User: Which sequence fits this backbone?
């Protein structure tokens, strides 16, 4: 087996995964780490981002630290990829050059279609779901949302949309530190549904919905602690619309200070965007006509380890 180090520079958080994959043994995770970068909050030039010199230095420094940590695993190859925020970065060449000079590695900025296909590949490495033949999936990040349709184990539809939590917060929420009223809640949910209708028409009724991304992870952890004090009992389903809607309403009713007190499990750098993520999830569920989400950790990084050859087309 070949051991890979995959570092995904995301819009809100950058994440590292060290692992190996074979069809016989599946994907073996050996190490994970992350750092907050919030690229989507950088200065803008129209619809493009301009990453500051300070932010570039922060990103490069964090990458070097993570790669040093990963080196003890003696990887066959280390791969750096970027997604939505970097697709929209005007001075991406400057960031690429800084990374190359400091690490010797080339940053690969994936297209939305490549990102969605990588996520689909990642889901197939999750033993909980590799028996499924027909399902939908989405990955919710800070800058974008990728949605995937699988029929008879073939990826038949992919779409990448600017529905990330940071992106929607900047567009629709005037003051993310204050409570979010009913009008703004409806605006986020309806905007999500309209963009899905426009960018991913004809997906049809969903039989089984799988989801990944930081908001999903912290949603699950919060529900487990708040409602049950343990793993969510199977009779309630994994992530049920009723509980997601209730949590979204509670969080939207609080300002940032009270969110911090009430929900200490949610990281500080997510407290402003977390309610937006929950409302986006509800919009996706409305569009796909489902009442339950099934969570997976196996997203883009897992897909690259399982099938790194697709990056050659980047």
Assistant:
């Amino acid at each position: 087996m070949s051991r890979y180090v995959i570092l995904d520079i995301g819009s809100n958080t950058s994440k590292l995964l060290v692992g190996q994959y074979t069809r016989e043994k599946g994907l073996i995770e050996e190490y994970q780490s992350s750092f907050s970068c919030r690229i989507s909050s950088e200065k803008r030039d129209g619809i493009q981002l301009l990453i500051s010199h300070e932010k570039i230095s922060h990103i490069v420094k964090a990458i070097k630290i993570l790669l040093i940590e990963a080196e003890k695993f003696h990887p066959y190859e280390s791969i750096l990829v970027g997604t939505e925020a970097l697709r929209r970065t005007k001075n991406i060449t400057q960031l690429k050059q800084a990374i190359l000079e400091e690490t010797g590695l080339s940053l690969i900025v994936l297209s939305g279609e490549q990102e969605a296909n990588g996520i689909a590949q990642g889901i197939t490495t999750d033993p909980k779901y590799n028996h499924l033949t027909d399902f939908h999936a989405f990955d919710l990040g800070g800058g974008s949302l990728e949605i995937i349709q699988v029929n008879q184990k073939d990826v038949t539809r992919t779409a990448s949309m600017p529905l990330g939590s940071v992106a929607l917060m900047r567009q629709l929420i005037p003051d993310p530190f204050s409570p979010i009223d009913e009008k703004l809640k409806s605006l986020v949910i309806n905007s999500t549904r309209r963009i899905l209708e426009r960018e991913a028409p004809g997906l049809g009724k969903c039989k089984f919905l799988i989801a990944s991304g930081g908001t999903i992870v912290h949603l699950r952890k919060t529900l487990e602690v708040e409602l049950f004090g343990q793993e969510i009992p199977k009779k309630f389903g994994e992530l049920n619309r009723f509980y997601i809607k209730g949590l979204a309403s509670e969080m939207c009713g609080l300002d940032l200070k009270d969110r911090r007190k009430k929900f200490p499990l949610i990281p500080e750098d997510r407290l402003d965007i977390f309610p937006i993520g929950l409302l986006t999830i509800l919009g996706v569920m409305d569009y796909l006509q489902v009442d339950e989400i099934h969570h997976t950790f196996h997203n883009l990084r897992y897909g690259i380890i399982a099938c790194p050859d697709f990056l050659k087309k980047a």
